[in-house]
Amino acid sequence: MELGFLRPLYDEIGEYASVYLDTDRVHDNAAEAIAVRWHDARDRLTADGADPDTLDAVAEVIGDPDEVATGHAVFGRAGAVTFSGVLDAPPRREIARLAPLPHVMPLLAQHRPPIPHLRVSATRVGGEIVAIGGSGQGWRDWVAGRQWPVHKTSVGGWSQDRFQRSVEETWAENARQLAAEVVSVADRIKARHVIVGGDVRARTLLLEHLPKLLRESAAVVDEEVNADSSALAEAAGRALGQWADRDVRERFDDWQTQRAHGRGVQGLAPVMTAFRNGQVSDLFVVDNPTSTATAWIGPDGQALAASEEELADWGVAEPVSDRADAALARAVAHTEAELHFSAPGSGRDRRPGRVRRFRASA
User: Fold this and answer.
1) Has residue 342 got a pLDDT over 80?
2) N or C: which end of the chain has fewer CB within 10 A?
């Protein structure tokens, strides 16, 4: 997963309140139970020195009666909520933590960010695009092509063949326009996948005009449905899940090959060195909530090291210490690297961390 959408979260270092809370409202006394859990969390953060204004801002998100999420992860600093995420299940463990960095790894492990992609409904006069970015934010776009002629007729006569060719040319031109917009939006949100529905002829023409990488990764829904329909959303979920599983397997296998030739590293300290050198393209970690590993960090997102002395030698004047997984998440967000989770107990190496161009395992 790409974490560039989290980059604004790391404008500063220090005094981040990270709160993971069960906000399930299914029971009759749910509001009271949530209030008690938040009261306990707030007390812990207050004892650690959290800013009251920040806690008030977090409380507004936690206590929103219109929010039906069963779990929340909320991050605040300097009197404001800097980022929040909803969970489709209560958090695996409730957290109330004040630290130099937001503790985002539990959120990423439990609720993976959406894979950027496009859902397209193709018509013979253009089409509709719904784009889903890495933050989960979506927006809609329409492409209106030539409106005439788009319907074939069977009136006969000397001009019949010419008219039919004109219709085909209109369809093709409209498909080219739609494809150009799909490519433009995909580039903007760094999407590599398109889910296509709509008119059978229009979607066939659209696919023909897409560049090879998008065409080969496209999933087709054999229905004339809108881009924001549940049918396209469900198809997107299936296709993206299969793609993500296959992609992680392939990247992990490639990391093992690269490591055998000295182009990949394993272990927390080597991974942090690779980040400082700008060499990481893929980071593999095992979700380990009990980990106590720490790292030293500086203001720059790639400034992280296993020791204070090492980071000082790199030119960081006043390094601070925080959780290693929080530092790694920040490093991924500030680079072009991607984060992948490896399941403990799978056939893969169980130790956290791995690097490609240098692939890495921390």
Assistant:
1) no
2) N
